[in-house]
Amino acid sequence: MAYEMNFTPVFARTPELISGTIDTIVLSGQSIVIGLTIGLAVSILRVDGPKWAAAASAGYVEAFRNTPLLVQLFLLFFGLPYIGIRLSADHAAILAISLNLGAYSAEIFRAGLLAIPKTQIEAGLALGLSRLQVMRYVVIIPALRVIYPALTGQLTLTLLGTSIASAISATELTLAGAKIESQTFRSLETFLVLAAIYISITFAFRLLYWIVGLWLFRRSVPKTGSAVATLSLPREAET
Amino acid sequence: MIQSFGWQSVQFLFHGLIWTVGLSVCTFVCGGIFGLIFALARALGPRWLQLIVAGYIQLVQATPLLILIFLAFYGLSFAGFYFPPLAAAAISLSIYATAFLADIWRGCIEAIPRTQWEAADALALSRIQRLRYVILPQAFRIALGPTVGFMVQIVKNTSVTALIGFVELTRAGQLLNNMTFQPFHVFLTVAAFYFAVCYPLSWWSEKLKERKSAGPAH
Fold this sequence. Notes:
Number of helices of chain B: 8
CATH superfamily of chain B: MetI-like
Largest sheet of chain B: none
Largest sheet of chain A: none
InterPro entries (chain B): AA_ABC_transptr_permease_3TM, ArtM/GltK/GlnP/TcyL/YhdX-like, MetI-like, MetI-like_sf
Number of strands of chain A: 0
Order of helices and strands of chain A: HHHHHHHHHH
Low-confidence stretches of chain A: 225-239
Oligomer: heterodimer
Distance between the termini of chain A: 83 Å
Keywords (chain B): Cell membrane, Membrane, Transmembrane, Transmembrane helix, Transport
Domain ABC transmembrane type-1 (chain B): 17-205
Protein name (chain B): Amino acid ABC transporter permease
Strand content of chain A: under 5%
Radius of gyration of chain A: 23 Å
Subcellular location (chain B): Cell inner membrane; Cell membrane
Protein backbone atom coordinates (compact mmCIF):
# COMPACT_ATOMS: atom_id res chain seq x y z
CA MET A 1 0.00 0.00 0.00
CA ALA A 2 1.46 3.28 -1.04
CA TYR A 3 1.75 5.93 1.62
CA GLU A 4 0.22 9.28 0.82
CA MET A 5 2.02 12.28 2.20
CA ASN A 6 -0.26 14.78 3.84
CA PHE A 7 1.37 17.90 5.17
CA THR A 8 -1.87 19.81 5.88
CA PRO A 9 -2.20 18.82 9.58
CA VAL A 10 1.44 19.76 10.15
CA PHE A 11 1.23 23.11 8.39
CA ALA A 12 -1.94 23.84 10.39
CA ARG A 13 0.37 24.04 13.41
CA THR A 14 2.63 26.70 11.87
CA PRO A 15 2.42 29.07 14.90
CA GLU A 16 3.84 26.36 17.16
CA LEU A 17 6.58 25.60 14.65
CA ILE A 18 7.49 29.29 14.46
CA SER A 19 7.64 29.71 18.22
CA GLY A 20 9.68 26.48 18.44
CA THR A 21 12.10 27.85 15.85
CA ILE A 22 12.48 31.08 17.83
CA ASP A 23 13.02 29.09 21.05
CA THR A 24 15.73 27.03 19.36
CA ILE A 25 17.49 30.15 18.06
CA VAL A 26 17.29 31.81 21.49
CA LEU A 27 18.53 28.67 23.27
CA SER A 28 21.42 28.35 20.80
CA GLY A 29 22.27 32.05 21.04
CA GLN A 30 22.35 32.05 24.83
CA SER A 31 24.38 28.84 24.97
CA ILE A 32 26.83 30.12 22.35
CA VAL A 33 27.45 33.38 24.24
CA ILE A 34 27.89 31.67 27.63
CA GLY A 35 29.78 28.71 26.17
CA LEU A 36 32.30 30.82 24.26
CA THR A 37 32.91 32.94 27.37
CA ILE A 38 33.59 29.80 29.40
CA GLY A 39 35.78 28.44 26.62
CA LEU A 40 37.87 31.59 26.35
CA ALA A 41 38.39 31.83 30.13
CA VAL A 42 39.30 28.13 30.41
CA SER A 43 41.71 28.26 27.47
CA ILE A 44 43.55 31.27 28.94
CA LEU A 45 43.78 29.49 32.31
CA ARG A 46 45.08 26.38 30.58
CA VAL A 47 47.77 28.24 28.62
CA ASP A 48 48.75 30.98 31.07
CA GLY A 49 47.25 30.10 34.45
CA PRO A 50 48.86 28.62 37.57
CA LYS A 51 49.52 24.88 37.51
CA TRP A 52 46.47 23.86 39.55
CA ALA A 53 44.16 25.99 37.38
CA ALA A 54 45.64 24.52 34.20
CA ALA A 55 45.11 21.00 35.58
CA ALA A 56 41.52 21.78 36.61
CA SER A 57 40.82 23.25 33.16
CA ALA A 58 42.23 20.17 31.45
CA GLY A 59 40.07 17.97 33.70
CA TYR A 60 36.93 19.94 32.81
CA VAL A 61 37.69 19.85 29.09
CA GLU A 62 38.36 16.09 29.03
CA ALA A 63 35.33 15.27 31.21
CA PHE A 64 32.90 17.16 28.96
CA ARG A 65 34.46 16.16 25.65
CA ASN A 66 34.40 12.45 26.46
CA THR A 67 30.81 12.08 27.69
CA PRO A 68 27.60 12.52 25.65
CA LEU A 69 25.59 15.75 25.85
CA LEU A 70 22.47 13.69 26.64
CA VAL A 71 24.09 12.24 29.78
CA GLN A 72 25.29 15.71 30.79
CA LEU A 73 21.71 16.96 30.43
CA PHE A 74 20.35 14.08 32.54
CA LEU A 75 23.02 14.60 35.17
CA LEU A 76 22.28 18.32 35.48
CA PHE A 77 18.49 18.02 35.27
CA PHE A 78 17.81 14.81 37.23
CA GLY A 79 21.05 14.50 39.20
CA LEU A 80 21.55 17.99 40.65
CA PRO A 81 18.23 18.10 42.59
CA TYR A 82 19.53 15.03 44.44
CA ILE A 83 22.31 17.17 45.92
CA GLY A 84 19.99 20.12 46.50
CA ILE A 85 20.27 22.19 43.32
CA ARG A 86 17.03 22.39 41.35
CA LEU A 87 17.09 23.78 37.82
CA SER A 88 14.19 24.25 35.40
CA ALA A 89 14.43 22.23 32.17
CA ASP A 90 15.27 25.36 30.18
CA HIS A 91 18.02 26.43 32.58
CA ALA A 92 19.47 22.92 32.76
CA ALA A 93 19.54 22.85 28.96
CA ILE A 94 21.33 26.21 28.69
CA LEU A 95 23.82 25.15 31.39
CA ALA A 96 24.57 21.74 29.87
CA ILE A 97 24.92 22.99 26.29
CA SER A 98 27.07 25.95 27.42
CA LEU A 99 29.38 23.72 29.46
CA ASN A 100 29.62 21.32 26.53
CA LEU A 101 30.47 24.10 24.07
CA GLY A 102 32.83 25.61 26.67
CA ALA A 103 34.91 22.43 26.72
CA TYR A 104 35.10 22.16 22.92
CA SER A 105 35.74 25.85 22.28
CA ALA A 106 38.42 25.92 25.00
CA GLU A 107 40.45 23.43 22.95
CA ILE A 108 39.91 25.48 19.80
CA PHE A 109 40.86 28.77 21.50
CA ARG A 110 43.95 27.10 22.97
CA ALA A 111 45.08 26.09 19.50
CA GLY A 112 44.61 29.72 18.42
CA LEU A 113 46.58 31.10 21.37
CA LEU A 114 49.43 28.67 20.72
CA ALA A 115 49.41 29.57 17.00
CA ILE A 116 50.76 33.09 17.65
CA PRO A 117 54.54 32.99 18.26
CA LYS A 118 55.90 35.17 21.10
CA THR A 119 58.24 36.87 18.62
CA GLN A 120 55.22 38.31 16.77
CA ILE A 121 54.11 40.07 19.97
CA GLU A 122 57.65 41.37 20.58
CA ALA A 123 57.84 42.55 16.97
CA GLY A 124 54.54 44.38 17.35
CA LEU A 125 55.76 46.15 20.51
CA ALA A 126 59.05 47.01 18.80
CA LEU A 127 57.08 48.71 16.03
CA GLY A 128 55.66 51.04 18.67
CA LEU A 129 52.16 49.54 18.85
CA SER A 130 50.48 49.89 22.23
CA ARG A 131 49.74 46.73 24.25
CA LEU A 132 46.07 47.04 23.32
CA GLN A 133 46.88 47.38 19.64
CA VAL A 134 49.21 44.36 19.79
CA MET A 135 46.47 42.40 21.56
CA ARG A 136 43.98 43.34 18.86
CA TYR A 137 45.95 43.25 15.60
CA VAL A 138 48.70 40.76 16.40
CA VAL A 139 47.09 38.29 18.79
CA ILE A 140 43.29 38.20 18.71
CA ILE A 141 42.40 38.76 15.06
CA PRO A 142 45.14 36.56 13.52
CA ALA A 143 44.47 33.82 16.12
CA LEU A 144 40.74 34.04 15.47
CA ARG A 145 41.45 33.76 11.77
CA VAL A 146 43.35 30.49 12.23
CA ILE A 147 40.59 28.91 14.30
CA TYR A 148 37.57 30.46 12.58
CA PRO A 149 36.56 27.43 10.46
CA ALA A 150 36.89 25.03 13.42
CA LEU A 151 35.03 27.42 15.70
CA THR A 152 32.07 28.00 13.38
CA GLY A 153 31.89 24.25 12.69
CA GLN A 154 31.61 23.66 16.43
CA LEU A 155 28.91 26.35 16.75
CA THR A 156 26.89 24.54 14.07
CA LEU A 157 27.20 21.26 16.01
CA THR A 158 26.06 23.11 19.15
CA LEU A 159 23.03 24.52 17.32
CA LEU A 160 22.03 21.05 16.11
CA GLY A 161 22.75 19.62 19.56
CA THR A 162 20.00 21.77 21.10
CA SER A 163 17.48 19.30 19.63
CA ILE A 164 18.62 16.79 22.28
CA ALA A 165 17.40 19.17 24.99
CA SER A 166 13.87 18.02 24.09
CA ALA A 167 14.72 14.86 26.08
CA ILE A 168 14.40 16.85 29.32
CA SER A 169 11.42 18.78 27.88
CA ALA A 170 13.22 22.09 27.43
CA THR A 171 11.15 24.29 25.12
CA GLU A 172 12.61 24.21 21.64
CA LEU A 173 11.78 23.09 18.11
CA THR A 174 12.11 19.31 18.48
CA LEU A 175 9.82 19.31 21.51
CA ALA A 176 7.26 21.38 19.60
CA GLY A 177 7.58 18.89 16.72
CA ALA A 178 7.22 15.86 18.99
CA LYS A 179 4.00 17.33 20.36
CA ILE A 180 2.62 17.93 16.87
CA GLU A 181 3.64 14.41 15.85
CA SER A 182 1.88 12.80 18.80
CA GLN A 183 -1.34 14.73 18.12
CA THR A 184 -1.53 14.47 14.33
CA PHE A 185 0.10 11.01 13.86
CA ARG A 186 1.81 12.48 10.79
CA SER A 187 5.29 11.39 11.86
CA LEU A 188 7.13 11.34 8.55
CA GLU A 189 5.71 14.71 7.51
CA THR A 190 6.38 16.33 10.90
CA PHE A 191 10.00 15.23 11.04
CA LEU A 192 10.61 16.14 7.40
CA VAL A 193 9.33 19.65 8.16
CA LEU A 194 11.53 19.80 11.27
CA ALA A 195 14.55 18.69 9.25
CA ALA A 196 13.84 21.42 6.68
CA ILE A 197 13.57 24.05 9.42
CA TYR A 198 16.81 22.92 11.07
CA ILE A 199 18.61 22.94 7.72
CA SER A 200 17.36 26.50 7.07
CA ILE A 201 18.44 27.71 10.52
CA THR A 202 21.87 26.09 10.07
CA PHE A 203 22.41 27.68 6.66
CA ALA A 204 21.25 31.07 8.00
CA PHE A 205 23.74 30.81 10.88
CA ARG A 206 26.52 29.77 8.46
CA LEU A 207 25.76 32.82 6.30
CA LEU A 208 25.96 34.98 9.42
CA TYR A 209 29.36 33.49 10.40
CA TRP A 210 30.60 34.12 6.86
CA ILE A 211 29.54 37.78 6.96
CA VAL A 212 31.05 38.24 10.45
CA GLY A 213 34.25 36.61 9.14
CA LEU A 214 34.42 39.02 6.19
CA TRP A 215 34.03 41.97 8.55
CA LEU A 216 36.49 40.66 11.18
CA PHE A 217 39.26 39.87 8.74
CA ARG A 218 38.67 42.78 6.33
CA ARG A 219 42.11 44.25 7.00
CA SER A 220 44.08 41.00 7.07
CA VAL A 221 46.43 40.00 4.28
CA PRO A 222 45.23 37.10 2.11
CA LYS A 223 45.90 33.72 3.65
CA THR A 224 47.90 32.34 0.71
CA GLY A 225 51.67 32.64 0.48
CA SER A 226 51.38 35.22 -2.32
CA ALA A 227 51.31 38.22 0.02
CA VAL A 228 54.41 37.05 1.84
CA ALA A 229 56.18 36.48 -1.47
CA THR A 230 55.43 39.96 -2.83
CA LEU A 231 56.50 41.55 0.45
CA SER A 232 59.82 39.75 0.60
CA LEU A 233 60.77 39.96 -3.06
CA PRO A 234 61.93 43.61 -3.32
CA ARG A 235 64.10 43.29 -0.25
CA GLU A 236 65.88 40.29 -1.72
CA ALA A 237 66.40 42.25 -4.93
CA GLU A 238 68.08 45.08 -3.03
CA THR A 239 70.78 42.97 -1.42
CA MET B 1 9.80 -2.10 43.68
CA ILE B 2 12.53 0.31 44.62
CA GLN B 3 16.00 -1.12 44.71
CA SER B 4 19.08 0.79 45.71
CA PHE B 5 22.09 1.50 43.59
CA GLY B 6 24.67 -1.22 44.04
CA TRP B 7 26.88 -3.77 42.33
CA GLN B 8 23.92 -5.24 40.43
CA SER B 9 23.16 -1.81 38.97
CA VAL B 10 26.72 -1.47 37.72
CA GLN B 11 26.42 -4.88 36.06
CA PHE B 12 23.15 -3.78 34.44
CA LEU B 13 24.84 -0.64 33.10
CA PHE B 14 27.77 -2.72 31.87
CA HIS B 15 25.33 -4.76 29.82
CA GLY B 16 24.12 -1.48 28.27
CA LEU B 17 27.73 -0.53 27.56
CA ILE B 18 28.15 -3.68 25.47
CA TRP B 19 25.24 -2.58 23.27
CA THR B 20 26.71 0.91 23.02
CA VAL B 21 30.03 -0.50 21.86
CA GLY B 22 28.30 -2.93 19.47
CA LEU B 23 26.21 -0.17 17.91
CA SER B 24 29.30 2.06 17.64
CA VAL B 25 31.30 -0.64 15.86
CA CYS B 26 28.38 -1.35 13.51
CA THR B 27 28.03 2.38 12.76
CA PHE B 28 31.73 2.81 12.19
CA VAL B 29 31.93 -0.16 9.79
CA CYS B 30 28.85 0.86 7.74
CA GLY B 31 29.70 4.56 7.88
CA GLY B 32 33.30 3.75 7.00
CA ILE B 33 32.44 1.69 3.90
CA PHE B 34 29.97 4.24 2.52
CA GLY B 35 32.11 7.12 3.75
CA LEU B 36 35.07 5.86 1.70
CA ILE B 37 32.95 5.39 -1.41
CA PHE B 38 31.43 8.86 -0.97
CA ALA B 39 34.82 10.45 -0.25
CA LEU B 40 36.27 8.97 -3.46
CA ALA B 41 33.19 10.06 -5.42
CA ARG B 42 33.39 13.56 -3.94
CA ALA B 43 37.11 13.97 -4.59
CA LEU B 44 37.58 12.10 -7.89
CA GLY B 45 34.17 11.40 -9.44
CA PRO B 46 32.56 13.15 -12.40
CA ARG B 47 31.19 16.62 -11.75
CA TRP B 48 27.52 15.61 -11.40
CA LEU B 49 28.42 12.89 -8.87
CA GLN B 50 30.54 15.34 -6.88
CA LEU B 51 27.57 17.71 -6.67
CA ILE B 52 25.18 15.00 -5.48
CA VAL B 53 27.60 13.77 -2.79
CA ALA B 54 28.38 17.34 -1.70
CA GLY B 55 24.64 18.00 -1.40
CA TYR B 56 24.17 14.85 0.68
CA ILE B 57 27.01 15.84 3.01
CA GLN B 58 25.71 19.41 3.40
CA LEU B 59 22.14 18.32 4.15
CA VAL B 60 23.01 15.58 6.63
CA GLN B 61 25.51 17.80 8.42
CA ALA B 62 22.82 20.47 8.80
CA THR B 63 20.22 18.09 10.27
CA PRO B 64 20.23 17.14 13.96
CA LEU B 65 21.03 13.46 14.54
CA LEU B 66 17.91 13.17 16.69
CA ILE B 67 15.72 14.19 13.73
CA LEU B 68 17.45 11.61 11.49
CA ILE B 69 16.77 8.94 14.11
CA PHE B 70 13.11 10.00 14.48
CA LEU B 71 12.72 9.98 10.68
CA ALA B 72 14.08 6.43 10.48
CA PHE B 73 12.09 5.15 13.45
CA TYR B 74 8.69 6.90 13.41
CA GLY B 75 8.68 8.34 9.94
CA LEU B 76 9.46 5.26 7.90
CA SER B 77 7.37 2.96 10.06
CA PHE B 78 4.31 5.04 9.21
CA ALA B 79 5.30 4.95 5.57
CA GLY B 80 5.00 1.17 5.66
CA PHE B 81 8.47 -0.01 6.63
CA TYR B 82 8.83 -1.07 10.22
CA PHE B 83 12.33 -0.85 11.63
CA PRO B 84 12.96 -2.16 15.14
CA PRO B 85 14.88 0.37 17.28
CA LEU B 86 18.20 -1.41 16.64
CA ALA B 87 17.83 -1.21 12.85
CA ALA B 88 16.54 2.38 12.93
CA ALA B 89 19.42 3.35 15.20
CA ALA B 90 22.07 1.64 13.06
CA ILE B 91 20.69 3.03 9.79
CA SER B 92 20.36 6.64 10.95
CA LEU B 93 23.74 6.64 12.71
CA SER B 94 25.35 5.18 9.58
CA ILE B 95 23.78 7.87 7.39
CA TYR B 96 25.14 10.44 9.82
CA ALA B 97 28.63 8.90 10.10
CA THR B 98 28.86 8.48 6.30
CA ALA B 99 28.42 12.23 5.78
CA PHE B 100 31.07 13.18 8.32
CA LEU B 101 33.62 10.49 7.41
CA ALA B 102 33.22 11.24 3.69
CA ASP B 103 33.94 14.91 4.42
CA ILE B 104 37.00 14.12 6.58
CA TRP B 105 38.46 11.64 4.08
CA ARG B 106 37.79 13.83 1.05
CA GLY B 107 39.94 16.50 2.72
CA CYS B 108 42.71 13.95 3.28
CA ILE B 109 42.62 12.72 -0.35
CA GLU B 110 42.68 16.31 -1.63
CA ALA B 111 45.57 17.14 0.70
CA ILE B 112 47.89 14.85 -1.30
CA PRO B 113 49.84 17.10 -3.69
CA ARG B 114 49.01 16.93 -7.37
CA THR B 115 52.65 16.08 -8.11
CA GLN B 116 52.14 12.69 -6.45
CA TRP B 117 49.45 11.86 -9.02
CA GLU B 118 51.73 13.03 -11.82
CA ALA B 119 54.72 11.08 -10.50
CA ALA B 120 52.60 7.93 -10.26
CA ASP B 121 51.30 8.59 -13.75
CA ALA B 122 54.88 8.97 -15.02
CA LEU B 123 55.64 5.54 -13.54
CA ALA B 124 52.94 4.16 -15.86
CA LEU B 125 50.62 3.12 -13.03
CA SER B 126 46.97 2.75 -13.95
CA ARG B 127 44.38 5.01 -12.29
CA ILE B 128 43.43 2.28 -9.79
CA GLN B 129 47.08 1.50 -9.08
CA ARG B 130 47.86 5.19 -8.50
CA LEU B 131 45.04 5.35 -5.99
CA ARG B 132 45.86 2.03 -4.35
CA TYR B 133 49.65 2.32 -4.05
CA VAL B 134 50.39 6.07 -4.01
CA ILE B 135 47.49 8.27 -2.95
CA LEU B 136 45.46 6.26 -0.44
CA PRO B 137 48.41 5.09 1.72
CA GLN B 138 49.51 8.70 2.17
CA ALA B 139 45.95 9.94 2.71
CA PHE B 140 45.46 7.15 5.26
CA ARG B 141 48.32 8.50 7.36
CA ILE B 142 46.79 11.97 7.49
CA ALA B 143 43.30 10.59 8.07
CA LEU B 144 44.11 8.35 11.03
CA GLY B 145 44.05 11.05 13.74
CA PRO B 146 40.76 12.75 12.73
CA THR B 147 39.13 9.36 12.09
CA VAL B 148 39.89 8.10 15.59
CA GLY B 149 38.66 11.47 16.85
CA PHE B 150 35.38 10.94 15.02
CA MET B 151 35.04 7.48 16.63
CA VAL B 152 34.64 9.33 19.94
CA GLN B 153 31.77 11.30 18.40
CA ILE B 154 30.14 8.06 17.20
CA VAL B 155 30.32 6.46 20.64
CA LYS B 156 28.81 9.57 22.23
CA ASN B 157 26.16 9.94 19.53
CA THR B 158 24.86 6.39 20.09
CA SER B 159 23.44 7.81 23.33
CA VAL B 160 20.78 9.68 21.32
CA THR B 161 19.26 6.34 20.25
CA ALA B 162 18.08 6.01 23.88
CA LEU B 163 15.31 8.44 22.91
CA ILE B 164 13.68 5.88 20.57
CA GLY B 165 13.98 3.22 23.26
CA PHE B 166 17.03 1.33 22.09
CA VAL B 167 18.49 -0.06 25.32
CA GLU B 168 22.12 0.98 25.25
CA LEU B 169 24.10 2.58 28.07
CA THR B 170 22.08 5.81 28.40
CA ARG B 171 18.70 4.04 28.12
CA ALA B 172 19.92 1.50 30.69
CA GLY B 173 20.71 4.47 32.91
CA GLN B 174 17.19 5.87 32.44
CA LEU B 175 15.63 2.49 33.28
CA LEU B 176 17.86 2.09 36.31
CA ASN B 177 16.98 5.62 37.44
CA ASN B 178 13.30 4.65 37.30
CA MET B 179 14.03 1.66 39.54
CA THR B 180 16.38 3.26 42.05
CA PHE B 181 15.45 6.97 42.09
CA GLN B 182 19.13 7.77 42.54
CA PRO B 183 19.77 9.81 39.38
CA PHE B 184 23.00 11.34 40.62
CA HIS B 185 24.67 7.95 41.20
CA VAL B 186 23.20 6.41 38.07
CA PHE B 187 24.10 9.10 35.56
CA LEU B 188 27.51 9.73 37.09
CA THR B 189 28.26 6.02 36.62
CA VAL B 190 26.90 6.16 33.07
CA ALA B 191 29.14 9.16 32.37
CA ALA B 192 32.11 7.30 33.86
CA PHE B 193 31.47 4.34 31.53
CA TYR B 194 31.38 6.64 28.49
CA PHE B 195 34.53 8.35 29.68
CA ALA B 196 36.29 4.98 30.05
CA VAL B 197 35.56 4.20 26.39
CA CYS B 198 36.03 7.69 24.90
CA TYR B 199 39.05 9.00 26.77
CA PRO B 200 41.53 6.39 25.48
CA LEU B 201 40.26 7.02 21.94
CA SER B 202 40.65 10.81 22.35
CA TRP B 203 44.15 10.32 23.73
CA TRP B 204 45.11 8.04 20.85
CA SER B 205 43.68 10.52 18.34
CA GLU B 206 45.78 13.35 19.83
CA LYS B 207 48.91 11.17 19.70
CA LEU B 208 48.27 10.34 16.04
CA LYS B 209 47.76 14.02 15.17
CA GLU B 210 50.98 14.98 16.97
CA ARG B 211 52.95 12.28 15.20
CA LYS B 212 51.63 13.49 11.87
CA SER B 213 52.65 17.11 12.47
CA ALA B 214 56.06 16.05 13.84
CA GLY B 215 56.73 13.67 10.97
CA PRO B 216 58.69 14.48 7.82
CA ALA B 217 56.90 16.64 5.28
CA HIS B 218 56.22 14.94 2.00
